[in-house]
Amino acid sequence: VTHCPTGALSARDDKEQLFAYDAPIADPDKVVVVSIAPAVRTAWAEESGLPREAATPGKLVAALRQMGFQYVFDTNYAADLTIMEEGSEFLERLSHKEDFDYPLFTSCCPGWVRFLKSQYPELTTCLSTAKSPQQMQGTIIKTYFAKVAGIQPENIYHVSIMPCMAKKAEADIPTINDSGAGKDVDLVLTTRELIRQCRSMNIDFSSLEEEEFDSPLGTGTGAGVIFGATGGVMEAALRSCYYLVTGKNADADAFKEIRGMDGWRESSIDINNTTIKTAVVNGLGNARKLIEALLKGEVQYDFVEVMACPGGCVGGGGQPIHLDEEETEDRREYLYSLDQNAPLRFSHENPEIQKTYEDFLEKPLSHLAHELLHTDHTAWTVPGTKKIKPE
Length: 391
Ligand code: SF4
Description:
Blueprint: E1 2-3, E2 10-11, H1 16-19, E3 31-36, H2 38-47, H3 57-67, E4 71-74, H4 75-95, E5 104-105, H5 110-119, H6 133-149, E6 156-162, H7 166-171, E7 187-190, H8 191-200, H9 222-225, H10 232-246, E8 264-271, E9 274-282, H11 284-295, E10 303-307, H12 326-341, H13 351-361, H14 367-373
Parallel strand pairs: 3-4, 3-6, 5-10, 6-7, 9-10
Antiparallel strand pairs: 1-2, 8-9
Bound molecules: iron/sulfur cluster (SF4).
């Protein structure tokens, strides 16, 4: 446990649950797998002691194999899957506004979900039912991957490395596990815990060769990687919504007006002669202002992205701590440079996502996709708040 200098605050440290001598990673009956969130790679690069251009995701993969993980996956895969489900859900709500609560709020940030459910519970049904990338990744690993690899789902121990403290609580939500094999995400470690573990194992990053992620669940697109920055989920969703509506791709940078660091940003996007009004918010103070304005009827939107942390997950509570905002800005730019240079920049073009639908899920919002990849936010209550009863 890490304490602040006065001992008033402490950060939870769960590494021992995995790396103690009798922990899962030393258990021959367990297949221990790990997934890395988009924003982790950029902050890890800062702490690796290597120049940023040398601290590649491929070296991080090699470091994780050296730690003993048998499969190393990329949560960017599930970010792309989230876009397919959430983008399809948005288009469904857009064309049947009268049947749904409106606008659609993104739901991939557990800090925001908890804030909304505790402060404005009457708006809970505006949240997208699509699970976050962390939880989709967990469910797919213990269902589809287990089947493909011929492993009993209950023998898989899945570790998720996140920029976020709130993801630990998200993995514990009782109604979020759909694989039927215990928790879909068994353990969440933050970027800081990962870095401390690398140091305690004396991993020499400079001598590591690049290694590939395992497949399936190892391929992500540029759209998936920008999930780590404020506005990234919205931009990635619009890229695929445009394709789903028109049957062709817009320019990958067509929606770049959504990017930025301002706390509350608005855009009007035209797709096939339909204007979509979007808002992107980071920081919960800004989220409260936006909701109050929505409730007073001062603003109207179709689709709203909210990230609790300033700058989005790049500035998450599990990332290395710096006292200035510039680091967040640098991390955001790094993720956009990965997107710019990615061979694929649209979630719907991810070949592993296409194969997952072909072989397993059938199509976005299919019966099985609903069962495994969506969740009922009204089915659990934030402790100390009233039970939510949807109309
Ligand atoms: Fe977690 Fe912050 Fe990212 Fe929300 S914005 S998912 S609280 S790191």
